[in-house]
Amino acid sequence: MNAPLNHPLPLLELDVLRTFVAIAETGSFTAAANAVFRTPSAVSMQIKKLEDILGRAVFVRDARSVSLTADGEMLLNFARRLLALNREAVSKFVMPDISGIVRLGSPDDFGERVLPSVLKRFAQSHPAVAVDVVIDQSANLRKRLAGRQLDITLLTCPETVEQGEVEVLLTEPIVWAGVKGGCAHMREPLPVSLWEEGCTWRNAAVKSLEALGREHRIAYMSAHTAGQRAAILADLAIAPLPKSFIGGDLVELGRDDGLPEMGNYTLGMVVTSDASPSVSAAADHIRATFDLFNNTGRF
Prior knowledge:
alpha/beta; D-Maltodextrin-Binding Protein, domain 2; 2 domains
């Protein structure tokens, strides 16, 4: 029997839906709690309230993982649409005057892996701002910024950077990546996939191999992460990559495999000194994205 017209259906709270989406995307109540700045117990209470309202379970929980039920999958689509509509409506009032073009530079690796989701969320919250992206090597991006061809750029740098040179967004280990079950790392000389001089990861790899006295040859050269992944997955070579890039068929190789440690690298951001409101908004959005990653390990 349908509810009578004078007995309206309960309203879903956007704050609860935001928590629900965060759990679905991170696969963890703890990670979601960090993302929405709540305690794990508060997050659990929100989901219990949501399930009580719907009369359905939205998650299947066990000791190690959290997954969506069929009802949860259906709710996820509605939740994302409701949150997107809320962002669009609020942005019309809170940021009605922020418009313009932002010229953003990024190294290939983060341009491929991180920027699509970052720019999608930024477009939702700032629909009147257009972002033009340039993918290039960090050295070339610095030149473009100095030539006022870019407003913001991301840069890969050695772990130690001079104070004030860049705004540090992320510091993480560089590790050796190989294909699961592969044997490229056992060959002599060691086949590696690298890019040209000036690449932070290349410099760390070459220095560590030379310090160990391990003979190596550049078996594959690519300026693009996709090209390096192809060489690794074909077991033609191993390559230095950020630890966060490891996953799926890529595995981390280390001392037990006869390979040296390479230390850390830094991802930095530089913003033009005369940033417009639209450029400042984009920079703040990028900062928030990496704050989330540093807290949850997920972009």
